[in-house]
Backbone:
């Protein structure tokens, strides 16, 4: 008997040895009870079983028994009464039930059905939440491992196609008149290109690329999607489309177009929320990569002014120079000199070159 079943007055505690025809042992139980003979035919049921959805609640034929319960009943008969340690689980209508068998003395089996729909939904929700958390952790780890805009766009589009949709198209803000477009399909290589596109050809894309004012994810009519926004080789017609912005550090980092084929189901509210969180993580990484690229470009420009000039041989003497950044703990000081060639060939070795003090500079830590 399931642990939550309270036996009726006058009924035995363990129904395994009870006569299924007696009735009072399970007839008043709040759980549905089905009595199946050796052939799998329903020979009796209690009042709660009459409320089961479908033919299981009223027909005595073997076809009225769900396939999963009929298979379990047949295996139980072949095992000569061996009861499985764990309860069997299956669907009846839109509900999920756990089936607990109790073999009777005449060879029939009393099946106690416990509604486990609530727990099943809770476990499925918990499993989905864990998968989404693992996906976000893997996404952020992969994105932050490379502060490179094309690489970040490739990783974001690829993971979006694997976990959010059948295909994903990531569009970055324009550089001049050209946008970076990254296309990804599930299980296929990522394709990247830079091209001129009209953001207004995709509803909601222009607003997502502006970044301000912030806009939410937007459902788009699949018929309004231009050809460039659908990856080559996309299986079947487009069934559902979402355009979501990629928010960055005060500036737009791009937009993500998620596509599902007509064979796939539409996006659920939980999936839409997950897509927004995914887009926020991807936008943060893309913004950081773009900022790092700008800082690297500025640093390279400033470094060109600090690097020493190319030094050549002067009257047979070769000179070389190098740049080394001073550490914070070092005290750098002294006189700095510029080297100029002598106007006339020197007469003694000490006059091979002439120097003029340029400046004196001392740095204290």
Residues:
């Amino acid at each position: 008997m399931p642990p939550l079943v309270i036996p009726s007055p006058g009924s035995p505690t363990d129904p395994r040895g009870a006569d299924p025809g007696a009735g009072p042992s399970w007839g008043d139980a709040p759980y549905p009870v089905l009595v199946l003979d050796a052939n799998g035919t329903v020979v009796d049921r209690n009042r709660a079983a009459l409320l089961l959805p479908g033919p299981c609640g009223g027909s005595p034929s073997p076809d009225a028994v769900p396939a999963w319960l009929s298979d379990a009943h047949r295996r139980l008969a072949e095992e000569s009464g061996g009861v499985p340690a764990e309860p069997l689980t299956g669907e009846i209508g839109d509900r999920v039930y756990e089936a607990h068998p109790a073999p009777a003395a005449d060879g029939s089996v009393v099946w106690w059905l416990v509604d486990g729909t609530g727990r099943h939904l809770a476990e499925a929700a918990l499993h989905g939440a864990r998968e989404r958390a693992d996906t976000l952790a893997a996404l952020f780890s992969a994105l932050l491992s490379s502060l490179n805009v094309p690489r970040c766009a490739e990783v974001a589009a690829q993971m979006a196609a694997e976990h959010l949709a059948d295909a994903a198209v990531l569009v970055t803000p324009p550089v001049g008149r050209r946008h970076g477009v990254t296309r990804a399909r599930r299980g296929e290589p990522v394709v990247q290109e830079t091209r001129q596109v009209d953001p207004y050809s995709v509803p909601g894309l222009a607003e997502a690329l502006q970044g301000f004012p912030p806009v939410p994810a937007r459902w788009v009519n699949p018929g309004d999607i231009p050809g460039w926004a659908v990856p080559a080789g996309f299986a079947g017609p487009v069934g559902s489309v979402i355009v979501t912005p990629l928010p960055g550090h005060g500036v737009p980092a791009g937009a993500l177009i998620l596509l599902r084929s007509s064979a796939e189901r539409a996006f659920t509210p939980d999936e839409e929320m997950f897509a927004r969180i995914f887009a926020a993580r991807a936008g943060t990484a893309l913004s950081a990569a773009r900022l790092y690229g700008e800082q690297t470009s500025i640093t390279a420009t400033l470094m060109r002014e600090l690097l020493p000039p190319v030094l050549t041989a002067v009257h047979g003497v070769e000179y070389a120079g190098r740049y080394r950044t001073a550490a914070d703990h070092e005290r750098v000081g002294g006189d700095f000199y510029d080297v100029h060639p002598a106007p006339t060939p020197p007469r003694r070795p000490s006059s091979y070159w002439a120097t003029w003090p340029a400046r004196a500079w001392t740095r204290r830590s």
Summary: Residues 3-18, 349-365 have pLDDT under 50 and may be disordered. The longest strand covers residues 238-247. The chain is about 25% helix and 20% strand. The first helix runs from residue 67 to 78.
